[in-house]
């Protein structure tokens, strides 16, 4: 009993919502316009945009599942030494780094430029002049002009979740040796978005290449999928830009158009050596320290110093661990405070071959599940008891589990690895089998009468799974006495 | 003057919203899709589902009033010794117990099973074996297997309001001697519901009987009323269920289908003697103690120990009392803290014959009014000054008062008793006549010029009702001097 | 650097959202139904309602911009000694006083009538009777009947923003010598409104004059603009009103209809001399004191004593000041706490000739901009890089800047003065040029690769505007070294 209470408390703190005092702080979200979910499908991206430095794949936002969940999904692949151009989105974004590593800039208006570097010109200049000459205020000014200050740059690598607020400019640079693959979900139905639920992206540079074939594809695709990426600057008059930045008009023109149509991911000319990169090890150390020392209360952090990144592969932070069945790692607003404001969270699971994810439903959120490795048989059931989804899902595929719909997963022979994005900052699941299930919570009398079984059978139903919860090991155990 | 300030303070605390610091904690709710309210009607349930153990009546969710308010309404009648099968809803539910008494289970994932009982088998076993033999850990294990643990069971009786969160499994059992009648409103437009506004129910057992006549009826009813109650289990494959629960496949089949089609309310085989019931007297005592001792702050309560029940008949907790006109009992988030999270509240009124409920509008919520006894003439006026409702309402009928619409009620000769469910956890009304009315708040000069009356007439308009507020006694008083 | 940090902090506190701990208190707002914004337009009112004492002009609520922003806009002109009749709206209102001054009553149910005056009759009576005769309780009662008590009356004048909660009755009286002109935006998509997004007004007196021409005009206008102002009282039966107020039926009839059809603004018979007016000077002094002394924490204020008024012309409270380019005055929830509950804010700008408002987007809100004086060239760009708005705007015109759309303004030769209403209580802008811009926040390497420019050009782009932020002075500065 005591074990159970402790387990319940731990699970409550980690995985479930503290539905008590904190729930009133939960941001709001309106109900979907229409959920036509007679038949759910495994979804793959339908639109591909080839840029100079990589590939952008977009799931069709007009799919019924995505419209019900109010989200859009994108996968970006960046070649080494390529830059995803700066831009922003009208809704918060959760990004999972499937492969590779890189650097992300996330700009906030009003935050100071705390990263200071020296430009190459300054470096070469320093070689020819002795440092003793510096000191006069004019010299100081010139030096400041040539050294570069910029806002914080964040290192990320495979297994990271990145949380990006609505309207915040961000860019990504692949400084690794392999392709960088990032899967992202945009929460269009978020309260931060006061525009409609159409998928939109706002770029500050670049522009989508206008290829013949692709134009045709766009023509036939439905309205909601027709987003065409172009730079915001191209809509302003060049005279106004020149004056706003106090630059010559030929440079202003450079802001506006990119005649080579390199797309939204560009190959970099050199390897961005001027830019200061975070000392990774120290950043991680610091983070771990604040978590363990409970120094992190979400209040003392301002938006300028908040964390946007959480690694989902850290073994010691797994929330559900079963030696027989696998592990689950959750990240919610308690682990990554920015998620409270974005009202989103994520889960990464690594399930062993033939394990079963207990039948359950989500009380709080839609889930967008993206398969990372292996395969599994997934069954989703609606309120009429219909099996609306019963597919084998594989790597690179995505499916949506609507709120309240019951789901269970049986892992294949290779194991199963997935990441799921959830439309709530405080997600809560209700399991149907196992130690923390609703069946276990009910009196035997209720089970006996609900299912017309004997008290003995009802006891088996309640207790046969013993202390297993969420992740159930495969194979029938020995019969109970 | 001082009386008025005190009255204002008391009313503010009890009946009105503390629009100050607490309002920012109010959960959110989006505006209705479309409110076509040229003509409101008295509504009666249009669909009847006969189950083995009782009757379910559903108001047509496609009615304009219900769609504008974003709610659905249901009435369940349970025979004695019958069980409303376990299930949950995609939105919070407020239930009023119109008649009878019973037990409710409300399961929360992660909450401990704090009710411990011994199964019948254990009881009979104990008779044959002496207790001294027990002691070994294997024996202990076996004993634990046979005694039953379950989550808290709540006693409710006539006059209670029950608050049920979205996605939380609940069941009800009529252990009384008379029929149990419960009227429920489901708040589909609540932020807890991320599905669309269609009426849905998710059951863990049972299934709606498929009768011929009823099938036809469903075919002709509009889409939104076509909810068909079936168990979630029937959508999973029986092999998967057998494995998930670690039970033989023939018992798993028992979870799935109910070939006898007993419906969603079943007659119980015995009287659920194994189940532990709460000691009612002590529960009530405890509740009263915490209220008076102000020990209840909504923070120290976790979701596992929170109260879900409030009795609306307790005379000493009435909020508005008039010797001539009747009494009104309100329950909002201050009295029942769970209502803060559900963003719902309720009011029960017991008005004397010929009393008048002052003309007023709600500043915060739609109201769904259900008539319990007697009759009254109700007038509702829209923003164009049109009388959109002017009906005599009787027992068992329901009507909707849209937010901001002005309404007044004149009780018939038999008196009038009603319960109304409100789509706000902190409801606030603005009366048009009486001590706390907007007319009284305005300077006489404004009344004189607004209504082209003499200052004397304006004074009569403001002051003739004296200290009466909300509930106005019948019959013209003697003329004022 | 330090300057910048301080500037950043100051700006964060004043103009930007404290996206940290406070954001979770932000009221919610759902996304727009549909934003068809291929082409934005300068909007002028399309419907005119002439009342006895003034003119009401309404912008067509079916305009795409207004539907996307979820707002309605109205301009009222009151003749001297005229009264805008008491009524309320189903959504919060922000009002800007463009010209003149007056008195506003804002009634809250339950708030005490703290303004006490003596009626004229009482005044004349006092002359004939000596005061020494008073003293008996009956006499006291009579005296109380004749003196008038009413709720607080607020003085407002040109340059004020008034914030009016949903459902709160308010009236306005022009006691000045010139016309009173008020521009108002109603936030229909606010969480306070549970009706649909149609424009509605609820009046307690008066009624729109039914002229022939106007009736025809209404017939051709689209549904959403067809609001017809009539008194709520006209929908109740006169018997019921007579009884509710305990007044003779002929006075009750006076509440209901206004056969002369004076409209919703009436000319007053005398100059409302009976009504107590606030001592203006002391009110202002008090307000300033609480702001400087930081006594104002939003908690100790109850709804009965809260401030609803903020003057936008007070020079010493400007938030952005540039000697070359002008000043901007913001009012958000930190300056006027009631805005936290209304989830609205406002900005007033007074820009010098030829100044530039930096290209920027709003991260949090739609803006409804109303031109007060002068003219400016405004460019608005959408996510496809299309110039959706490129017009010269003039006095009395209105335009909408959708959330996330980039906008820049170039002031004409006469200067430019505007007020803009924002659909967020904590608005945040992201500038594209200047000291706090996203361009400045990015490393030079990112700019070099994004825009294919030399490091030298990227430095010019980042630093040429020096310390200027938001408001940019006109004319090219001397070239940088």
Automatic annotation (TrEMBL), chains A, B, C:
SMART domains: Cupin_1. It holds the Pfam family Cupin_1. Residues 108-154 are annotated as: Disordered. GO terms for molecular function: nutrient reservoir activity. Residues 38-253, 310-459 form the Cupin type-1 domain. Residues 1-21 form the signal peptide. Keywords: Disulfide bond, Seed storage protein, Signal, Storage protein. InterPro entries: 11S_seedstore_pln, Cupin_1, RmlC-like_jellyroll, RmlC_Cupin_sf, Seed_Storage-Functional. Belongs to the 11S seed storage protein (globulins) family. This is 11S globulin seed storage protein 2. It comes from Morella rubra (Chinese bayberry).
């Amino acid at each position: 009993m005591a074990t159970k209470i402790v387990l319940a408390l731990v699970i409550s703190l980690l995985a479930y919502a503290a539905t008590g005092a904190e729930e009133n702080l939960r941001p709001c979200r309106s109900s979907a316009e229409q959920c036509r979910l007679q038949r759910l499908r495994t979804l793959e991206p339908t639109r591909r945009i080839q840029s100079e430095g990589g590939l952008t794949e977009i799931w069709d936002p007009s799919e019924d599942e995505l419209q019900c969940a109010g989200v859009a999904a994108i996968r970006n692949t960046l070649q080494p030494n390529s830059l995803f151009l700066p831009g922003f989105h009208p809704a918060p974004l959760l990004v999972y780094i499937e492969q590779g590593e890189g650097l992300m800039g996330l700009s906030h208006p009003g935050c100071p430029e705390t990263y200071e570097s020296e430009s190459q010109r300054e470096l070469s200049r320093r070689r020819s002049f002795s440092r003793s000459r510096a000191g006069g205020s004019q010299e100081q000014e010139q030096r400041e002009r040539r050294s570069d200050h910029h806002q914080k740059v964040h290192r990320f690598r495979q297994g990271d979740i990145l949380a990006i607020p609505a309207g915040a400019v961000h860019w990504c640079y692949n400084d690794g040796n392999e392709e960088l693959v990032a899967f992202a979900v945009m929460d269009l139905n978020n309260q931060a978005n006061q525009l409609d639920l159409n998928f939109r992206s706002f770029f500050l540079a670049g522009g989508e290449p206008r290829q013949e074939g692709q134009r045709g594809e766009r023509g036939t695709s439905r309205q909601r999928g027709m987003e065409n990426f172009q730079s915001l600057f191209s809509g302003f008059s060049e005279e106004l830009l020149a004056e706003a930045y106090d630059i010559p008009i030929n440079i202003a023109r450079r802001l506006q158009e990119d005649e080579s149509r390199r797309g939204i991911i560009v190959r970099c000319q050199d390897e961005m050596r001027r830019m200061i990169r975070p000392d990774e090890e120290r950043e991680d150390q610091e983070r771990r320290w604040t978590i363990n020392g409970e120094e992190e209360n979400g209040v003392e952090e301002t938006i300028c110093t908040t964390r946007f990144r959480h690694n989902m592969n850290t073994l010691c932070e797994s929330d559900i661990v079963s030696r027989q069945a696998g592990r689950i790692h959750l990240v919610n607003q308690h682990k990554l405070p920015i998620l409270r404001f974005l009202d989103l969270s994520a889960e990464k699971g690594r399930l062993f071959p033939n394990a079963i994810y207990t039948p359950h439903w989500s009380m709080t959120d839609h889930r967008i599940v993206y398969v990372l490795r292996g395969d599994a048989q997934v069954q989703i059931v609606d309120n009429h008891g219909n099996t609306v989804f019963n597919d084998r899902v594989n790597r690179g595929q995505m499916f949506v589990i609507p709120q309240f719909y019951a789901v269970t997963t049986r892992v294949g022979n290779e194991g199963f690895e997935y990441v799921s994005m959830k439309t709530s900052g405080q997600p809560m699941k209700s399991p149907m089998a196992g130690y923390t299930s609703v069946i276990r919570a009910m009196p035997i009398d209720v089970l006996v009468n609900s299912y017309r079984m004997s008290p003995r059978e009802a006891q088996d139903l309640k207790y046969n799974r013993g202390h297993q919860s969420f992740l159930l090991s495969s194979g029938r155990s020995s019969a109970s006495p």
